[in-house]
Amino acid sequence: MRQFLSWGRYPHLPQTPHPINWPEDISRALKMIAISGQGAGLAFGCGRSYGDSCLAESGHVLAMQHMDRVISADWDNGVILAQAGMTLAELIRIALPKGWFLPVSPGTKFVTLGGAVANDVHGKNHHVNGTFGRHVRQLVIQRSDEGVIQCSPFQRPDLFSATVGGLGLTGIILGVEVQLRPINSSQIDQRSYRFGELDEFFDLSRLHDASNEYAVAWVDCLAIGKQSGRGHYIVGNHSQSGLLEVAKASGLSMPFDPPISLINSASLRIFNTLYYHRQQRKEFNNTVDYDPFFYPLDRLQHWNRIYGRAGFQQYQCIVPESNGREVIGEIMQQIAKSGTGSFLAVLKQCGPLPSPGLMSFPMHGVSLALDFPQRDPLNGRLFKKLDALVHEAGGRLYPAKDAHMSSTHFKQAYPQWERVEALRDPQLLSQFWKRVTQ
Amino acid sequence: MNQNILIVGATSGIAEALARRYAAEGANLFLVGRNLEKLQTIASDLLARGAMGVQTFIMDANNSDLISAMTVSAWATFGSIDIAIVAHGTLPDQQRTEIDIPYAISELRTNAESVIACLIALAAKFEIQGSGVIAVIGSVAGDRGRASNYLYGAAKAALDTFASGLRVRLFKSGVHVLIVKPGFVATAMTADLDLPALLTVTPEKVSLDIQRAINKRKNVLYTPWFWSLIMLIIRWLPIVVFKRLKL
């Protein structure tokens, strides 16, 4: 069997899959993992968590991707209950022709419903709709000590809030009931603004976020001096009329692992400069399909391979609104000075809507995310500086992306972690959780 | 025109993937299996994915008394059947079949006799109907007996021979017979095997091949395609060489 790695492929801890086709397979697989004596297991969806939060203590995971059936669908009200292994791509394929879309879309559609809940994912509409968990009406969970249980904001609310954003530790998520959002068209009316510096982004965001459901910015992290903080700010809304068409799957794929990372400071500078100048006009309107709008990176399958065998780490932080502008500016300066970083950094102003999860990542403030090719001493030194800035400002890092956060910073940023630990299923434990709590 | 599809062994991984493809085209599906709960779960999933109608029928194919009732019920439900797929089967523990005779016999029954019983009942109905396709899931293991799984292989070889004869018989009636020979597929049946990752495919991929083969009225389908080359070599290896190999 092919073994699993996390999306960043760092740390390199191959996971042996135990395929789950029906709920009855779960206890059998967990028993086999327990017998192996290497520690606890964990549910594994699409493996889109970047660091070690999707890797089991034992190196044995329950492969949930074939648990992907619709249990019930109410197309009059857009409520769907599906098994947790269903991907968002599949859910879109089923729901979009009926005029329904995801209430919240993360940057890739290749995540499972269970993963979307366990990480309480957010997207370009956080300032309007909050996190994914806000649209979850009910969860079905299988625990090794209690069996199958249902929870919701009204039924076992303690377990519900510990499971949303709970990194899959409170039990195997079997079913997720989501409230979808209605759409009239599969297209997005998009408007894109080019900005020359970070301050301009914050002004644009303040001016346009409220009138657009979706808003995000791409920033060139390598530009220094006068060009520092340049980028594109993109907003969009669902078109009011048009066809309801599911996008065709992309055939493009990164077929192999290059021996070394194709991302280095030279290739990055060229790419970022080209990307910035792609749009010459200051402001640009057009209508685009939902797929490239929400999931541009899904167009190249296995894009994580461009970083070579060593893999990469993503750094995603969020800083509270009060001093977000200054702190993000400082962070970007540190990154520019280091000369490393990804194609583009993603900048997003998150809104004040509270997340239902005890450990949800988003807060009212500014979030920044970018990738770094895995280079041990270099990344370590830079992350240390960035971490200090983030935590001094009362911000936090995203566990779904993380492979380095210190235990001290974790406990400071997620003080509710002990309530999740208290509800953890004793047969489930991730490498991440072990690293930051023990 | 919505097609009417009958699937025996509808909870198997390959059958479920195939059923989803037909559901997406708006087909009517008649699902046959042993487990009511699983069949109902699959039925509601297929309806959400676009199936026009789904009927379930609980039956253990080893109980041959029920098979005719099943075909009668299927034809009564949809009037006619365009495609019937017989997909049930198990993967016997070869080592156990070498020492446990009742076990070996019962595995042979499940993988050969009960499938043939279904084919007999279906053939009678299709012959009268005068059109349609019967697809049966065989295996590359049926092409030549190998030490690692020759009881399973013997059962699948029986299906191969039976399907070949049936194809000739039904040709005159305008009914087509396809035998599918999958290689390694990651399904519940193979969950406990350590399959070579490079040769293993998903049931989604295999089901696409099967649907195309049905549309093109292919007689024999190796899926994925490279198994036709692998099995060509394996079939042509001289016995003196073959018996020394660990396959």
Task: Report on the architecture of this protein.
- The complex is a heterodimer of chains A (438) and B (247).
- By secondary structure, chain A is α+β, with helices and mostly antiparallel strands.
- Helix content of chain A is 27%, strand content 23%.
- Chain A is built from 13 helices and 18 strands.
- In chain A, the strands form four sheets. An eight-stranded antiparallel beta sheet of chain A has the order 14-11-13-12-16-17-15-18. Chain A has a five-stranded antiparallel beta sheet with strand order 4-5-9-7-8.
- In chain A, helix 9 packs antiparallel against helix 10.
- The model of chain A has no long low-confidence stretch (mean pLDDT 93).
- With 247 residues, chain B is α/β, with parallel strands linked by helices.
- In chain B, 49% of the residues lie in helices and 16% in strands.
- Chain B has a seven-stranded parallel beta sheet, with helices on both faces.
- In chain B, helix 2 links the parallel strand 2 and strand 3.
- In chain B, helix 1 runs parallel beside helix 2 and helix 3 runs parallel beside helix 5.
- In chain B, 43% of the residues are buried.
- At the A-B interface, strand 4 of A face helix 2 of B.
